[in-house]
Amino acid sequence: MEAKATAYSNIALVKYWGKRDEELILPTNPSLSMTVDAIYTTTRVRFDEARTSDAFRLDGEPAGQDATRRVTEALDHVRALAGTRVRAVVESVNSGPTAAGLASSASGFAALATAAATALGLELDDTQLSILARRGSGSASRSIHGGFVQWHMGVAPNGHDSHGVQVADEKHWDVVMIAACVNAGAKDVSSRDGMRRTVDTSPFYRGWLDTVDRDLENVRRGILERDFELLGSAAESNALKMHATTLAAQPPFIYWLPASLEIMQTVRDLRGAGVPAYFTMDAGPHVVVLCQPDDAAVVDARLKELPGVTQTFVSHPGPRAHATRVGE
Ligand code: 2P0
Q1: Ligand 1 centroid vs 51 CA: distance in angstroms?
Q2: HSE-up of residue 14 (Cα within 13 Å, Cβ side)
Q3: pLDDT of 190-224, one tens digit each?
Q4: CA of 49 to the centre of ligand 1 (A)
Q5: pLDDT in tens, 162-173
Q6: Residue 245, ligand 1, Cβ within 6 A
Q7: Topology (CATH) of 2-170
Q8: Which DSSP letter does residue 138 get?
């Protein structure tokens, strides 16, 4: 009853921004991401009949109450499928970039769902795994798959049709994503709270919903036709629209720092100088820059020159989540 899994994070090209069901984690819009090979989580889950509660260690330290509660809730969904109540010890280790404040919930909950299901001997297909991962954190539904992945929002009230589907595998096209990290303290507004506040109060949210299908179509076509400019321009525009919704929320909030704007301007300058590069941003101040492999060294060097950039992480399309049973 023990297994170990690795799952890779993903960066959305069309963002998941808003829930229609908070309990089941069902989104208000479809999203599409690239799984990234440089940001990942490895999780070991050991179920133990003798335990009376779950324990969660993160990067070698006992995790706090809130994180442990989220892990227990995610495990409860796996336990329900397996028809058991047995408790577990969970040990997760994030790769370096996560410590810098880059997305960890996607790889974290995808690794947890995959490891727990394998430890309990469940033979699930990718759709079932993606749904389990989604219950932990929405973006984790996309990290079950490698390459380019769409999260179909679904229409069913119980969420059975809301899961990740691979659009193209990791060998289809080598898009480079360079995460440029800026010096940031703890977030004021978590992505969970930020999306809720935006859905509830931002008059711009309607505009987000009205245009997301078109962005999705352009990003999909960009990927399938390997049209970098189409992909990059649609992704950049989609990210800016997501952030625009936060400006009009009540109370308003903004994830950008001065260094984030400096990176955005540098990307525009690179484009002006003939280097195709585009940016995207999640619910935080770091900026992820998209470019093609031949330009990656130049783009990375330019980003590292900026005083506000603390470090960069270069990713290529990453593989699917995978698990192995331990000790049997
Ligand atoms: C995304 N984000 O598509 C978007 C873009 C943030 C901005 O997925 O509440 O941690 O656990 O479902 O998955 C972050 O949201 O949120 C996220 P929950 P999650 O990548």
Answers
A1: 32
A2: 30
A3: 999 999 999 999 999 999 999 999 999 999 999 99
A4: 34
A5: 999 999 999 999
A6: no
A7: Ribosomal Protein S5; domain 2 (3.30.230)
A8: G
